[in-house]
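Per your request, structure below.
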């Protein structure tokens, strides 16, 4: 049995995939202690087969073509195929530090009951970071850096799928990743929360969640994600993801959400105190963050049918 399985799930990203695989092949961990699994979910099966053939001679790499679409499904395929005690997931546009797997296993040794180990993710900016992208929004592009040393994660510390590891036994025990959540295809649909839902299930079963900052990967932030429309879209889909994950909680604070939305719209100049406020371009990171909050709110309110807002207090 391997100590750890390093997994890359990919969808038509052959321009960056080879670098991601190369970073796993260059790990300091002895080859006999780990395996590499690539789950190719690309729609062009012939192209996928050519890449699969390219890696046929790699002894500790298994290249699996999975025709059923969806990131959550691809991750579940990897979890079931993995021979490692731990399953470490990395994105196809990420580059693992040479000691990534070794540091994950050090955390597992330090915390013997660890069920989840999240690591640091540093950005690779494809173009200059825009002025409107404040630090509070970096999580939208999977930047994770909680600082400090290896430790039990604090309640408010979250991890991203570009650098997250699960004990295989725990992952399978909790049914893997929910296939109604997570990305599907090329990114037109930005559903998320598949990792969050699984981690919450593990926490509810007294699972141990560890943060290991020394287990680091660098992650590409493409220029298409450094556009304000992408962030607005991301905010809307986050509201949908949250609603699917916990629909009963989404109607709990609608009154205060409504007031926040109205406050944002009223902060605009008179000509923009309407639906245009949700697409108003700004270089101010605080205004843009407020705009995204308003977009998230109106999406959640719509999904909730504006329940309870017939009250004259909000009319």
């Amino acid at each position: 049995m391997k100590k750890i399985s390093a997994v890359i799930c990919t969808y038509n990203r052959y321009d960056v995939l080879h670098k991601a695989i190369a970073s796993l092949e260059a790990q300091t961990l002895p080859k006999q202690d780990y395996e590499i699994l690539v789950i190719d979910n690309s729609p062009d099966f012939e192209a996928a087969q050519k890449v699969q053939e390219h890696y046929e001679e790699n002894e500790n790499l298994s290249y699996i073509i999975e025709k059923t679409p969806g990131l959550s499904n691809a991750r579940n395929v990897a979890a079931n195929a993995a021979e490692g005690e731990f399953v470490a997931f990395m994105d196809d546009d990420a580059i693992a530090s040479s000691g990534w797997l070794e540091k994950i296993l050090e955390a597992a040794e330090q915390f013997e009951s660890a069920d989840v180990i999240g690591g640091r993710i540093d950005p690779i900016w494809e173009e200059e970071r825009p002025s409107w992208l404040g630090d509070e929004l970096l999580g939208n592009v999977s930047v994770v850096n909680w600082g400090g040393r290896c430790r039990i994660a604090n309640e408010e510390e979250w991890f991203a799928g570009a650098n997250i590891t699960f004990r295989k036994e725990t992952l399978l025990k909790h049914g893997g990743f929910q296939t109604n959540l997570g990305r599907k295809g090329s990114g037109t649909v930005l559903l998320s929360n598949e990792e969050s839902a699984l981690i919450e299930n593990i926490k509810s079963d007294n699972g141990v969640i560890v943060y290991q900052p020394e287990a680091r990967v660098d992650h590409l932030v493409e220029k298409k994600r450094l556009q304000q429309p992408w962030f607005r879209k991301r905010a809307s889909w986050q509201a949908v993801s949250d609603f699917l994950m916990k629909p009963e909680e989404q109607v709990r604070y609608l009154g205060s959400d409504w007031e926040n939305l109205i406050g944002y719209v009223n902060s605009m100049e008179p000509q923009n105190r309407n639906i245009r406020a949700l697409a108003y371009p700004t270089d101010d990171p605080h205004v843009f963050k407020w705009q995204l909050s308003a977009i998230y709110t109106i999406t959640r309110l719509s999904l909730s049918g504006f329940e309870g807002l017939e009250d004259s207090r909000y009319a």
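The first strand starts at residue 2 and ends at 10.

Regards,
D.
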